[in-house]
């Protein structure tokens, strides 16, 4: 039978606030000692009370706006209870009943719209490392602010699931609310997949694959679940509602917890935090801080930058933002330099730390169009512009220092050609060319380039040679 | 209260207090005596006085600290085994404010473990005895603090009131006990019982002392988002007018019935007559919504209790059972051995009312009843300035009398819990004795933020 898959995704995004959601401790624990970014509040000493971080509220508003969501002027926190050493309080502070971010949608590059049900603010849990006979607890991550984004079941293919997750990631990094470092778990995805026979109005029983941390694993897990459930249903079996884990090495999902074993979290309003009341003015002033989003750039560069080139660039907000300073006539060239030269570099991540200005890039393209720089030289100078030591040196100066500016002065070039033609070792080639052997022109041009120490414009040299030899 | 000066040294005051504390050791008031540090601090204050330097408003005044306030002096145990050995690196905001005025903590006082109880019999360290009759309970949960003030060991003591835990022991021992407006004093650094009803307050011997303590400790704290801006020292107009000579005093008819001991009803009547004679108006009120208070309280509070006690898991601090071989056992054994039976009862009730499928039927309904109670008080205070009611249905009962009857114990709170649900302040005032010499207490109740006028008006009842 043919089945239609229906997929809904919950995504956890760690917010890059300076301090934690409920304490004044450093929120950036990257590269720090375990349990070094922990306050008595995070550690849940007796008598400690949460203090809400205003920056997290601002970030949530921006994240919500990035997903075209309504921001709820009134929201509040709830406690979600469970016992595990990663949760020092014995509960997670989350927004179960009244989330801050309401309904909205995310538009995929293909134009498909995925509706957002809501998104809420909550504190992250700590991290456990298990050994043979003991486990170690690191509470650095406790109460790092998270927003959990809950989609509607609007996704119907593994590819759209991939594209949705990737687009969410782009929205968060463009909005500047998350580092978006997937390797370090800044974004994690829980994927619900169900199958229904084609034409059916009811959804099938769903499974949830938890804690995926790459777009590729989302896509593969969905593909696997579709295949597994199809096989199960075709053979007359039933899908069991359960939580499944993903094994990246085997490419398979395995059952973890059934619906019956689901925990009762005993949700309760958080009495230590007053409700959040946001004025319309505040919501608007925060919303205005939202910069251009990927969909804005798609509209802006439609027709001037090729779609697949732009899609690559949309993974790098500062590259796309640099394009805004590029003159229209230079856009294609710069976009191509970004994708085929810069991003092809092994050290491209380092280069992205120190971008040249749009003005410098414009100047570079101008020099290329004026034939002052060959295409090879253009690429070389282009890469030099990302070197922090070359900052403010000036494009022309860099090109000069590297000896890459081409000689375009006809009189000077003619002189060079005359010297080449006067050399005895070129006599045979001159004769051959005159006798119709077209390809020896390359040899003569090469001699001229050598004579000019590489500075001559080769096409201009060729033109002069032709004129002189065939006249 | 006696404050250290050129003639009376802080060291003298502290030595006297410590001596009395030891003299009354059989009352089981203190879980920790702060001898060394208290004397050291006293000498330091004395040297400042000698040099003519500035000292605080509570210079050298010995006080007792309920053992659920965090401070680095002594273990903070909340009289619970599970917090045994816990040395706090933190000082509670209220304690820090008292210490900044040079008050001297001479000891930590006994309470029902985690403040769960109305008799201090639920303490891991055994019950505290009533200041007036050693066969009777001190009341609770702040029993140790009430008796420390009643026996004149200290000038004042801190308490916490979640459903009557200051007012009831104050009335059982014949001292003043204030539960301020919710959010008046920071809860930061105080072991939580139920976050939405917990209030920090005091036991004192006079309204003047109470006023001083309030003006020192009230005010907004960035570490407690539920605190109110410091209205106590700033705003005056709201909502009663202290300059008004004659006030309207409400009497709740619903509380005047046979379940209240005759001698308490008589005490109330005589105070009513006293107020009338001073020209105040008495208003009889019906407050039918208050009959839901106890039921709502024993749903909302256990829910918050169960939640707030989740952090005591033996993983990070306090007591950890040694007989566990894996994580679930560590939780099971630590919590089974570490909590008192009353703690466990409230955890179970709390988890039950929050369970999926029961939340709407219990917790949500109780929350709605709470709203009705808040509105009932608002209505009452549109008709009167203060309410005068008994604190509890009976004077101090005998040790062991209600230990095995939790419902009878919960009924002790029937007239006190509605204030906590509504967030309004209540001051327990001594109002005479029974024939057998047991103190009787009445409570004066005011609208939110009326703490200052409430304390001022209590002088009318002397």
Structural notes for this entry:
The complex is a heterodimer of chains A (471) and B (462). In chain A, 36% of the residues lie in helices and 18% in strands. Chain A is α+β, with helices and mostly antiparallel strands and 471 residues long. In chain A, the strands form 4 sheets. In chain A, strands 5-6-9-1-10-11-12-13 form an 8-stranded mixed sheet. In chain A, helix 1 packs across helix 2, helix 13 crosses helix 15 and helix 13 packs across helix 16. Chain A is elongated and about 95 Å long. Chain B is α/β, with parallel strands linked by helices and 462 residues long. Chain B has a single domain, classed as Amidase signature (AS) enzymes. Chain B is built from 14 helices and 11 strands. The longest helix of chain B is centred in the C-terminal third of the chain and has 24 residues.
Q: Residue ranges of chain B: pLDDT <50 for 5 or more in a row?
A: none
**The number of domains of chain A:** 3
Whole-angstrom Rg of chain B: 21 Å
Distance between the termini of chain A: 78 Å
């Amino acid at each position: 039978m043919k089945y239609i898959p229906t997929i809904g995704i919950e995504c956890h995004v760690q917010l890059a606030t300076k301090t934690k959601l409920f304490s004044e401790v450093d929120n950036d624990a990257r590269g720090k000692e375990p349990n070094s970014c922990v306050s008595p509040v995070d550690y849940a000493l007796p008598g400690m009370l949460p203090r809400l971080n205003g920056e997290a509220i601002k970030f949530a508003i921006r994240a919500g706006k990035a997903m075209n969501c309504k921001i709820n002027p009134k929201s509040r926190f709830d406690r979600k209870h469970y016992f595990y050493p990663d949760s020092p309080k014995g509960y997670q502070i989350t927004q179960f009943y009244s989330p801050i971010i309401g309904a909205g949608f995310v538009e995929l590059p293909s134009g498909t719209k995925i509706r957002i049900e809501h998104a809420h603010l909550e504190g992250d849990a700590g991290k456990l490392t298990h050994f043979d006979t003991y486990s170690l607890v690191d509470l650095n991550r406790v109460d790092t602010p998270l927003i959990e984004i809950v989609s509607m079941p609007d996704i119907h293919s593994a590819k759209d699931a991939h594209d949705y997750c990737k687009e969410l990631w782009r929205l968060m990094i463009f909005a500047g609310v998350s580092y978006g470092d997937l390797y370090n778990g800044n974004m994690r995805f829980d994927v619900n997949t169900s199958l229904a026979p084609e034409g059916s109005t009811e959804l099938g029983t769903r499974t949830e694959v938890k804690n995926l941390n790459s777009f590729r694993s989302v896509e593969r897990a969905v593909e696997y679940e579709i295949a597994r459930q199809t096989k199960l249903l075709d053979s007359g079996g039933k899908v069991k509602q359960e939580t499944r884990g993903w094994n990246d090495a085997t490419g398979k999902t395995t059952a973890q917890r059934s619906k019956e074993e689901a925990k009762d979290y005993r949700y309760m309003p958080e009495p230590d935090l007053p409700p959040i009341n946001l004025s319309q003015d505040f919501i608007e002033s925060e919303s205005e801080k939202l910069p251009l989003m990927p969909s804005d750039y798609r509209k802006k560069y439609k027709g001037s930058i090729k779609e697949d080139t732009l899609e690559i660039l949309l993974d790098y907000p500062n590259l796309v933002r640099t394009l805004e300073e590029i003159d229209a006539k230079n856009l294609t060239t710069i976009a191509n330099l970004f994708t085929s030269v810069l991003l092809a570099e092994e050290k491209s991540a380092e280069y992205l730390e120190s971008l040249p200005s749009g003005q410098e890039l414009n100047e570079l393209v101008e020099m290329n169009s004026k034939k002052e720089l060959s295409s090879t030289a253009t690429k070389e100078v282009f890469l030099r512009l990302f070197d922090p030591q070359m900052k403010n040196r000036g494009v022309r100066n860099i090109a000069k220092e590297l000896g890459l500016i081409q000689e375009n002065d006809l009189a000077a070039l003619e002189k060079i050609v005359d010297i080449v033609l006067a050399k005895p070792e070129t006599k045979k080639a001159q004769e051959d060319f005159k006798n119709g052997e077209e390809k020896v022109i390359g040899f003569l041009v090469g001699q001229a380039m050598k004579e000019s120490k590489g500075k001559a414009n080769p096409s201009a040299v060729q033109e002069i040679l032709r004129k002189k030899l065939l006249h | 209260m006696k404050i250290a000066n050129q003639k009376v040294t802080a060291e003298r005051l502290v030595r006297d207090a410590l001596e009395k504390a030891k003299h009354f050791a059989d009352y089981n008031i203190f879980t920790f005596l702060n001898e060394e540090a208290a004397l050291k601090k006293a000498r330091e204050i004395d040297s400042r006085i000698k040099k003519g330097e500035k000292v605080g408003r509570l210079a050298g005044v010995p006080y007792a600290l309920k053992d659920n306030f965090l401070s680095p002096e002594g273990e903070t145990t909340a009289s619970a085994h599970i917090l045994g050995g816990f040395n706090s690196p933190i000082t509670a905001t209220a304690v820090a404010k008292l210490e900044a005025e040079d008050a001297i903590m001479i000891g930590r006082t006994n309470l029902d473990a985690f403040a769960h109880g109305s008799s201090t019999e639920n303490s891991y360290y055994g019950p505290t005895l009533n200041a007036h009759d050693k066969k009777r309970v001190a009341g609770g949960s702040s029993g140790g603090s009430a008796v420390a003030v009643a026996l004149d060991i200290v000038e004042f003591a801190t308490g916490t009131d979640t459903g009557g835990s200051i007012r009831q022991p104050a009335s059982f021992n014949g001292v003043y006990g204030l539960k301020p407006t919710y959010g008046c004093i920071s809860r930061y650094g105080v072991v939580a019982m139920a976050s939405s009803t917990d209030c920090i307050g005091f036991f004192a011997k006079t309204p003047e002392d109470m006023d001083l303590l309030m003006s020192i400790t009230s005010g907004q704290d960035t570490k407690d988002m539920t605190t109110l801006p410091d209205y106590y020292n700033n705003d005056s107009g709201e909502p009663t007018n202290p300059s008004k000579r004659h006030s309207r005093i409400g009497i709740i008819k619903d509380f005047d019935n046979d379940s209240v001991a005759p001698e308490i009803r008589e005490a109330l009547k005589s105070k009513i007559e006293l107020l009338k004679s001073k020209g105040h108006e008495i208003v009889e009120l019906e407050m039918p919504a208050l009959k839901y208070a106890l039921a709502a309280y024993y749903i909302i509070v256990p829910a918050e209790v169960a939640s707030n006690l989740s952090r005591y898991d033996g993983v990070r601090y306090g007591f950890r059972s040694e007989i566990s071989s894996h994580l679930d056992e560590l939780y099971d054994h630590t919590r089974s051995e570490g909590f008192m039976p009353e703690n466990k009862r409230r955890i179970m009730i709390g988890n039950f009312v929050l369970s999926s499928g029961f939340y709407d039927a219990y917790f949500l309904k109780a929350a709605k009843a709470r709203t009705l109670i808040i509105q009932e008080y608002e209505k009452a205070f549109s008709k009167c300035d203060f309410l005068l009611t008994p604190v509890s249905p009976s004077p101090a009962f005998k040790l062991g009398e209600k230990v095995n009857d939790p419902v009878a114990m919960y009924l002790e709170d029937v007239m006190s819990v509605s204030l906590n649900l509504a967030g309004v302040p209540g001051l327990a005032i001594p109002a005479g004795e029974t024939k057998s010499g047991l103190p009787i207490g009445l409570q004066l109740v005011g609208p939110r933020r009326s703490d200052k006028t409430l304390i001022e008006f209590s002088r009318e009842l002397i």
